[in-house]
Amino acid sequence: MSRPANHKPAWVFTLPSIKDPRCMLALGLTLWTVLGQTTYYFNRDSFQLEVAVASACALDFVITAIWKRELAVPLSAYITALSIGLLVESYDWRVYVVVPCWAILSKYLLRDQTRHFFNPSNFGIVMVLLFGHGVASVAPGSQWGADYRVAFAILCLGMMMMTRLKQLELALAWIGGFVVMSLLRMALGQGGLVFALGPLTGAEFALFTFSMLPDPKTCPPTRRGRVVWALSIAVTDGVLRYLEIRYSMFYALFAHCAILPGVRALAARAGVQEKEVWRILKFPFGSRPG
Amino acid sequence: MNATPVEPNESAWPAGRRKLYWCVALMLLAALAALAWIRTGMLDLPAVPANLTLATAGLADLNQMKKLNDQIWSTTPTGQQPALSPEALLVQRGIGAYRRGEAKAALEEMRQGIRLDPNNLVFANAYRMVVFAARRDFLAAARREMVATPKFPPELDRQPIAFFEELDRRHHTRETRLDLALAWVDEMLLFPALEVKAPSSVEAVDLLTQVIDHGDPGYVPALFARGLNHLHRPARLVWPESAKTPRDAAAQDLGKCVAIGRKLHTGSAHLHAVLAMNLGDAYVKAGRLSVAHSWWQIAQNLCHDDDVQAAIHRRYGWPDDEILDRLEAELDRSRGELDHPMTDLALMWN
To answer: What is the mean pLDDT of each run of 10 residues along chain B (350 residues)?
Structure first.
């Protein structure tokens, strides 16, 4: 049935295409969660994970429906919620409602001229760490049962995923920068090799590296920009670690995201244009006066 | 907004120069790694003497010690047990008498057994634990009856310190010194008032330092006891001892215990986990929070026993700005566990 010329679709049903990089990320995270909950030592409460996913997806769905008149499959919210559910540790289940909601709201309320600039899950985690009065912490990185072989396998799978997402240089620069800063901290007398490089084998580091950091919406648009970005986060993280500040990775990324609008403005002035990275299929239906 | 990103020319440097830069970068990285390794090594633990053995570390025959401990505390009739040495029989009979409520005879029999084998930590530990329980119960009864200044009966008065002082005078070894030091710590646990706690801690640390600094630098029970003593001292208390004790004194002693345990590959997973957790606590006191967290993490991975896991989870929940206070509260609680006093050496062999 055709629409009158002065009418617009009442609603648009949007669905991520199979080529959408988020599909791979969501699949990887789901597999990660299932493995962690069944085989390895994730020790997460399934109820808390479900609450986090339900809260984030419902809020994202409602906001998109009201704001854009789109009935969208909330894939981004699902990824955000799983990251939060796996990373945030709290005895209070309400944290798993509030933090995902903060994360999703940051996407819609904190924007520059083009898009949001805080990584949603990072924003939620940093907010609860800063303002949660100790009600939540980041889950210790000893998941995967501290088995370095599993950690190595995860690192390899993560790298393959980054290659597919075309974010390999970002992940490599971050890991390389982290290693150099760790060696520098050791040379300055802070901790031993196990403490300096140990975080590399933890689920916290892997989630940060392969799920949070490479979000294409919240990192610079060019390859060289991403390398500098990742190295700069690694240096900031190393300095914070040297100052004995916990959760340094999350604070480092948060600080960098806060200056992302400036980076984008500089990139735009240099003639760099950003393209839409999500691959979405849109199905309009119904009609309303234009 | 849908144009392709314009990438600047990424290979501005000639290939030869780029190779050179990579080589220089790799060499710098190797130099940094070597420097880092020399400075801290794998776990940044204190050095262990190369000639240290299980015997000099006080960790030999832990299985036999466990067996002996089980036998002397066993409630199985003596006839149904493997033959015990005369000194073990005396200690076992003493424990039995204590269970029957005959405290005076019990302690005398145990003392006789210990005098026959004064270096046996299992016997001395049993004596301390029996005296501790008797004194604890006496104090609890006095509290219930609202006695303001309870006076111990003669068999418990100044025990076990008096006995171990006498034993150390007659048979001066590292084991008898350790027993005496731990007796002072027992006193500290029963009387938590600062007026008793502080001098008891000083006495204990002095005795343990004599053991460690005069011939037995790798004696783990003494290192562990001294490390715990330093750890349990209030961090913010200003007193003469705090001025002359380094801030990382507990971390040094407990770190050495961990290093020796790793070198000699002995002790249960539970013991290693407890040591790692205590070392983490010691690093909190030394102000090195990230290292503290790493040691807690190591403890968590070493042993999945519920008590260790619960203790680690509690620690992970402490925010940085409250961590020292929360740790001190946790240590206060552990000192207050009078049913399972922290000076029970059974942790070593169980």
So the answer is: 46 76 92 90 84 87 87 75 82 89 87 89 92 89 82 85 89 89 87 76 87 87 90 76 78 91 85 92 88 86 85 84 88 83 82
CB contact under 8 A, B320 and A114: no
The ipTM (two decimal places) reads 0.74
Quote the CA–CA distance of B316 and A148 in Å, as a whole number: 22
Residues of B in contact with A186 (CB under 8 A): 36-37, 39-40
CB contact under 8 A, B290 and A275: no
Q: Is residue A3 part of a domain?
A: no
Contact assessment for residue B107 and residue B159, using Cβ atoms and an 8 Å cutoff: yes
Q: Is A198 on the interface with B (CB under 8 A)?
A: yes
The single-letter code of the amino acid at A185 is R
The CA distance from B7 to B99, in Å, is: 84
Residues of the domain holding A62: 8-289
The answer as to whether A1 is a domain residue is: no
Tell me the pLDDT tens digit for each residue of A175-229: 999 999 999 999 998 878 888 887 887 778 888 998 889 888 888 888 888 999 9
Domain count, chain A: 1
Q: Is residue A57 domain-resident?
A: yes
The answer, for B44 touching chain A at a CB cutoff of 8 Å, is: yes
Does A268 fall in a domain? yes
Query: How many angstroms separate the CA atoms of A37 and A19, rounded?
Result: 28
B213 shares contact with chain A (CB less than 8 Å):
no
Q: Is B310 on the interface with A (CB under 8 A)?
A: no
pTM of the model: 0.73
- How many CB atoms lie under 10 A from the CB of residue B246? 10
In this complex, the residue of A114, A146, A193 whose CB is nearest that of residue B37 is A193
Hey, of A194, A200, A227, A231, which one would you mutate to test binding to chain B, going by the most B CBs within 10 A of its CB?
A194
